[in-house]
Amino acid sequence: MPLSPFNSVSDLEIRLHPVPEALWKSLSRGQFASRELYRLRLQAEHALLVSGFDELVCLDLLKFTPFDYQVRAAQIALRHFRGRGMLCDEVGLGKTIEAGLVLKEYLVRNVVQRVLVVTPAALVEQWREELATKFGLPNFVTTADPEFRAAGLEGWERFPRLIASLATARRADHRARLVQIPYDLVIVDEAHHLKNRASASWKFVNDLQRKFILLLTATPVENDLDELYNLITLLKPGQLSTPREFRKQFVARGDPRQPKNRGQLRELLGDVMVRHSRGQVNINLPPRQASTVRLQLTQQEAEFYAAVSGMVRKQLGTLPSPSGGKGQQSTLRGIEGESLRQVDRFALLTLQREIGSSPQAAESTLRSLASRAATAGQRDHLLALAEQATRIPTWAKADALEKLLSTIFHADKTEKVLLFTHFRRTLGLLAERLRMMGIDFVTYHGALDIAAKQQAIADFQGRAQVLLSTEAAGEGRNLQFCRTMINFDIPWNPMRIEQRVGRIHRVGQTREVRIYNLSARGTIEDYLLQLLDQKLNMFELVIGEMDMILGRLLDERDFEDLLLDVWVQAQNDAELQAGFSQLGETLLQARQAHQKTREYDEALFGEDFSSE
Amino acid sequence: MSQEPSLQDLILGYCQQVGGLVEPPAYGIYEVLLPDDVAARWGFPAHQRFLFAEEEHRAVLEGSATQGSVATEGSAATLLHYGHPLVETVVEELRRQSANGLFFVNNVRLEKPGLFSVIEKAVGLPNAKLFPVPDAVERRRLYHYVRFNFKASLIADEKRELILPIWMHLQSGYPVKSDDIERLAVLDVVNQFKHLDPAELAWLPRPPANPLSEEVLHPLLERARLAARIALGDTLQSLEKRLRRFLELDHARLSQYYDDLQKDAEKRLQKADADHRPALEAKLSAIETERQAKLADVVQKYRLRVDLELVNLAVIAQPKLDLKVEIKKRTAASQRQVAWDPLRHTVEPLACDICGLPGEELHLCENGHLAHAACLAPQCVECKRTFCQKCAESLQNCVVCARPVCVHSLARCPECQRVTCHEHVNLCHAANGEPQRIQAASPEAAASLEKAAPAAAPVPTPHGAELAARRKAAKKRGIPKARTTSVKKPVAGPTGDYVDIYFGAAKPLVSAYVMVKKREIAVRSWELTDGGIAVYCQCGNWYCREDGLVYRPAPDGQIEAQIMSNIRELMAEYHVPEKKLHFYRVVGEAVDARRLILTGRWKDPAALEAARTGFDNLK
Fold first, then answer.
1. pTM score over 0.95
2. Which of A492, B77, B222, B565 is most exposed, with minimal Cβ within 10 Å?
3. B153 shares contact with chain A (CB less than 8 Å)
4. Is residue B75 over pLDDT 70?
5. Which chain B residues in 461-500 lie under 8 Å from chain A, judged by CB atoms?
6. Distances in Å between the alpha carbon of B191 and those of B169, B194, B317?
7. B-chain residues within 8 Å CB-CB of A30?
8. Which residues of B touch A209 (CB under 8 A)?
9. Phi and psi dihedrals of A70, rounded to 5?
10. What is the domain range of residue B562?
């Protein structure tokens, strides 16, 4: 029986929340409040009422202050796009923030319950951190979490707020489950990975059931206007008509990148897209200056480094790369013909990084590997290396650090320095060194509780000259009262370097930022720095551009794996140089391609889609 | 009580409520001294200086000439705003309390000379009269209103909240409009009518002694929930209209898009060779599946739901005068307590025993129930007895003419045990052991007890002479051509406000609802059957010339015109202007449509040909 308007209101579901027991009890006991209290109780409820999206109620619940343009973009997505839109701000302007605002607003208003965030693998943790630290949403589960893995495929249903990598989610077994689940909100970061409607990724996102969907990309069009069509079709099928009609109406004959009927196209895009450029939003950060302090390892350090590197090379040369990377060797032979377990790849990778930080940092990993060694020979060798690590009397890197700090404080006693190291062991040793130098410092690491962390920051802002920190301070903390940063060891993932830099080079920073990288000649880090700094000018890139460049390069692999493969496969220095050179070329090409895409999108969209 | 929230009022009021001292403002700054335990609980110093206005705060901070003495006097004032930790603390603390209210209306005069005459004039009884009950006396008793304060959340793809007070009459169990009460009543916290007994609760079968017990308030809360639906009516309708508009736009966009994709795919399929056909057929099927999925997504997106949360309630006790009266007609009688409200100077309406809502006019049913006209069952065609819907089992349908006849008047055949009216006795098994079905010739309405949905009604299969007569009439009428106005003289009858047309792909059925003030007064449907286009009509006319007719389907391409012509005739019958015609396409839910678009069997040439053949074979 079809509905008629007369029936429609009466058929509407009106749900009454359970009444608190206390309310009934007080009535049956004849307990009533005074007139004034009764009235105030109603007023308190009035104070919390939400109306339309003209005013975002989530703003008071945030742990940071968003920019006006970000708030406007979120309002447009909520009011005008009604939850189905594309956020296309230029790199570094905070698309994640805008999407987070929309998400938070929906959650606070109880309009959504089930949320799925789909991102490149490398950004999953970053999303989780941002949502937890900035938006007060700590209960997002990622597909890498133990509880999700333990639940298997049921996990998709069980956890209503999930962050998943696109690569994981679109796998056949996962996808089959996911498309059965009705999501309230789906957010897809780096949505330009969905530009091809014949791709598994596009089809996967298209098949998801959702009420609302947000696509985030700084480069909605790279090679062909069809890419734009494919993205918009995910949001609102039919907005740009059929593919054939779209090409006929809006794409110049013979040039798939050249639009026509721009006015009409702009109008249609305006229903689904918002984009801000750097120039529009007046966010100008002071420049950043990077310097590399290259040092020579002492002979004992160099011997130790070579010995461990050689062992790592040998071992890793016998194991396949995690995602079937290029150059994989199929023979499996250990030190004495035995193979090591796959999990040891991670240990070996860590070891190789530790020796780049300090010899002592490698000791525990060496001993751990020794305890798992398949043969006595292996074990003895590893233990010998561990012993060697503790007996090295020199520490060239720390000496270089000492000189650097002296120079910095000599020039300005009031200067604050943020000193990063990845490893706790190194952190402990550096703390001793700073103490011996008589420098007032505080340490910061993940094992501190919240109060201790806050105290450390407060002390750094106050009396302390140096904040000696692990990666923990690279996450979420704003330290823009400081403008000098020293990377004692270099993370192999450039995005992590960028995260570190982002603590001081951000809005609120008024002075030129100075970044010092300590690098020992002949180490992987040295090659990496040359690649990133000299080849790519990474430290001059805008925040977020590194993400974009690496995104072109990597799908499922980590940059760290890529780096390690180059290191391991080279048999000599020449091959090493060649390997890194090739990697550098690839990165450069990716950067150039990104630059071209950026320019094209700027020309295509201009400033027509801002929230102003 | 004003519901306009003022932050100043809220904070200062609550500070006083918890025992704090609030000094009158100096230059807009309020000095507040909180009790130590409250200050400790809130985590703020006991002595506070509050500001609620931005300009005054700026003046204090800047230490302007006129404010200089304030700025130097001591600690700075705290600018309070929504979101400030103190405000949050106060609001949260208040929200943890129910804070129900109990108030009394004492400003009334409990005297009404000639109460029975007043009641007699006020209570509308179309089929009965009011009589005094011997020895009945006017009583002064306490009646109660319960004001349920709900927070209503209207959630679709956005959310709006409002405070929704619903006033319920505790003794009668129905919702009341509160405007007069709020305007006239002076609410006191002391009961000056303590000596009065509470009135009985007429709507509960076994009311407990305490009218404010959970056994009463629970079911009353449920009634309030239903009343909230009506109270929100206008807000919901405008919101639904808006959502329906968005849904329609999205629906149209998606339909156009998938229609175009389908057309493209079909064109390619026509030209494809055998190798490529399976893939294209699969693609066609996938397009349709995707269409349904996307439509389902948008329907979900705009689906409206309402959440009610009871914030607190207030009980308002008011003394009233009541008197027991008897409502009587020839065949039935019932006694009721009728109350006189001395505040509004009105007689309180009695409640309908069926829907529970008050009625200005109520009918007395044969079993002593009072009911609105709309809550009655059809009248018995023989004795004209009136039954309400609760007593509908006292009525049965004549198996021959389907008219209602009550248990007192029906005739039961001793042979076949079937029930008929007196006019059709012996016709219950006249057609080879089956009832002879004929159209009612008597002036009474041919309404059925069960208002079957047109979709469920069987195709009428007229017999014999009656069939021939119908066929002649149909042939004479021929195939109606499309006309912009009806040429038939409109039948004098009720006037409709507008007509809603529903159609969909699921069944070859078009239904027209003639509406007056949002109530249906007639429903007519056209269904494509194997024997032609069958017409069903429930219009309350004693004889409807359209009901049961069968039309021969027009040639392919003219079906819509044929149905539209019938629709216009219906509109002409009820004097509904051309513009007041709305179309709805049923796709799970009813969605606005610009015009009548028939699909499925209506456009299937084979089905139409079969229907024409079936019609022709009816000869």
1. no
2. B222
3. yes
4. no
5. 500
6. 19, 6, 8
7. 212
8. 293, 296-297
9. -70, -40
10. 498-616
